Amino acid sequence: MNRSGFTGAVQTAMGTDVRFIVTSLTGRAKHLYEKVYCARGKMENLIKEHKLYTKSDRTSCHRWEANQFRLFLHTGAYWLLLLLRRAAPKRSRWRGATFETIRRAFLKIAVRIDQLKSRIRIALPTACPNKDMLILLLGKLSAQSPWTARHVPL
């Protein structure tokens, strides 16, 4: 097996970060580092977020069907959190926030829900600290919805 190695160094305010990578993959070092090595690290972080913030590793039921359904629900919650984070403006603090921060700020709030004939109205509390950002995020998400033409804007 033929192996090659390369080194990457980054200088930050916290100091120098040197990385040594040995691989059997062929290609240019820059491409391997940026497109393969960093992508793998990003994917590992996404899996860690899935397990940590949605508690998807809690499959304690004796039946596999129940555990599979629970994992399905956790993946739906993860997808919702990922959509909320990606809908945030690029230069906002919410774009890089952890899922726990997003969950506490936008999902764990008390609301009043009125069910009307053709829609559901959600009333946020007057003291909601992130009300403007939540309205912005929901507006962006509803604009991406396949049912946008039938819905009345917020």
Task: Summarize the structure in words.
- The chain has 154 residues and is of the alpha+beta class.
- The chain folds into two domains: 1-46, no CATH class; 54-154, no CATH class.
- 46% of the residues lie in helices and 17% in strands.
- The protein has four helices and four strands, in the order ββαααββα.
- The chain has helices at 29-53, 64-87, 99-107, 131-143, and strands at residues 4-12, 15-23, 112-115, 120-123.
- β3 and β4 (120-123) form a beta hairpin.
Please render the helix and strand layout as text.
Blueprint: E1 4-12, E2 15-23, H1 29-53, H2 64-87, H3 99-107, E3 112-115, E4 120-123, H4 131-143
Antiparallel strand pairs: 1-2, 3-4
Helices, by number, come to: 4
> What portion of the residues fall into strands of 2 or more residues?
15-25%
Q: How many DSSP E strands?
A: 4
The average pLDDT value, as a whole number, equals 81
Structural class: alpha+beta
Sheet with the most strands, sense and barrel status: 2 strands, antiparallel
Q: Secondary-structure element order, as H and E?
A: EEHHHEEH
The best one-word shape is extended
Number of structural domains = 2
Distance between the ends: 60 Å
Strand order of the largest sheet: 1-2
Helix fraction bin: 40-55%
Which spans of ≥5 residues are poorly predicted at pLDDT below 50? none
Rg result: 21 Å
